[in-house]
Design brief:
Its EC number is 1.11.1.-. Disulfide bonds join 73-156. Its cofactor is heme b; Ca(2+). One of its GO terms (biological process) is response to reactive oxygen species. This protein has one domain (53-314): Peroxidase, domain 1. It has 14 helices and six strands. It has helices spanning 2-36, 40-43, 53-64, 75-89, 102-105, 119-133, 141-155, 187-195, 201-207, 238-245, 254-261, 266-271, 276-290, 317-322; strands spanning 66-67, 72-73, 165-166, 215-216, 226-227, 303-304. A hairpin with a 4-residue loop joins strand 1 (66-67) and strand 2. The longest helix has 35 residues, at 2-36. It is globular, with a radius of gyration of 27 Å. The termini are far apart.
């Protein structure tokens, strides 16, 4: 009996010693791994909080962009979306500029034909910039343009919520001329212009879907105010079908019709017909990408303020019924 107890004590002691040795080995191994890992703050930098001022901006813009009569987005919303395109896209990888607020801060830009019709919204966005700079000096004109566009998009029924950043630097130097397409620019030239900005042909076709909420005023003054699809004020996909079918009461830009027919883009163009969910999924990252053109490092160093952008508006039942059944699944 004594011998048995001794054997048990020895066995238990050996097991305990082994466990302690293993634990020591494990701790040493863990220490070695830790020494070779970067600091956790390097792996995942602490995300800066979106300045509270942008929540105030969003509240004001949501009222500014809504037509309370029909609960669709209004002319100011349409112009704000267009302004975001024109501030950023008058740039390519070989010139300075991009999303820098020069559309607001460089008066020369508003004298250019491609920016005709933006004078009123630019004045409003400049006033808003100055108003909210008095509350928070970090507000820039460049950020105001892009943030306003994001709020305008969700104010339009069916408009998706776009990831939105702030922290851009302003510039009062006018952008380089000739980098925005016109209403009669050939499709091949438009595709090349955007490729030089880092925007693919597929992304380009998704982006021009914003014309669904648009109206034209200056391409043909005899048809001022005519919409570019049959549901102005909504960011649906009717634009893609209407551009090729050209129903009465719809103004089709020559450049849009050319892109719809171009072999490089026609399949993507037709692929969005009746496909709201597919278009939204393509449009949102393309729009975020557009809002970072010319920003060194892209979104690195910027602050994500997507949470300050309102949720997409509840779609009126009449609009839901009009969507293809399979696209609602």
């Amino acid at each position: 009996m004594y011998m048995l107890k001794s054997i048990l004590i020895l066995a238990t002691g050996a097991s305990l010693a082994s466990a302690l040795d293993f634990a020591g080995y494990g701790n040493k191994a863990l220490d070695a791994i830790k020494r070779n890992l970067p600091d956790i703050e390097i792996i995942k930098p602490r995300q800066a909080l979106c300045p509270a001022v942008w929540t105030l901006v969003a509240a004001e813009l949501s009222v500014t962009f809504l037509n309370t009569t029909d609960l669709r987005c209004n002319d100011d919303a349409r112009a704000a979306i267009r302004a975001a395109f024109h501030d950023c896209a008058s740039w390519n990888t070989s010139v300075p500029g991009g999303c820098d607020g020069s559309l607001i801060l460089a008066p020369e830009e508003l004298t250019r034909p491609e920016n005709n019709g933006l004078q009123e919204i630019v004045a409003k966005l400049l006033a808003l910039t100055q108003k909210y700079q008095a509350i928070d000096s970090s507000v820039t004109a460049a950020d105001m343009i892009q943030f306003a566009s994001s709020v305008a998009i969700v104010t339009c029924p069916l408009g998706p919520k776009v990831q939105t950043f702030v922290g851009r630097t302003d510039s009062s130097i006018a952008s380089t001329k000739g980098l925005l397409p016109g209403p009669t620019t050939p499709s091949a030239d438009i595709i090349t212009l955007f490729a030089n900005k880092g925007i693919s042909a597929d992304e380009l076709i998704a982006l021009i879907g914003a014309h669904s909420a648009s109206k034209q005023f200056h391409v043909d003054s005899t048809q001022a105010g005519v919409p570019q699809d049959d549901t102005p004020g909504e960011l649906d996909v009717d634009f893609y079908a209407d551009t090729t079918s050209k129903p009465a009461g719809v103004f089709v830009l020559q450049s849009d019709a050319a892109l719809a027919a171009d072999p490089q883009t026609s399949a993507t163009f037709q692929g969005f017909v009746g496909k709201q969910a597919q278009w939204s999924a393509a449009f949102t990252p393309a729009m975020t990408k557009l809002g970072l053109l010319g920003i060194k490092g892209g979104s690195t160093g910027l602050t994500d303020c997507t949470a300050a952008v309102p949720l997409s508006r509840v779609v009126p039942r009449s609009l839901v019924r009009r969507q293809p059944i399979m696209d609602r699944v």
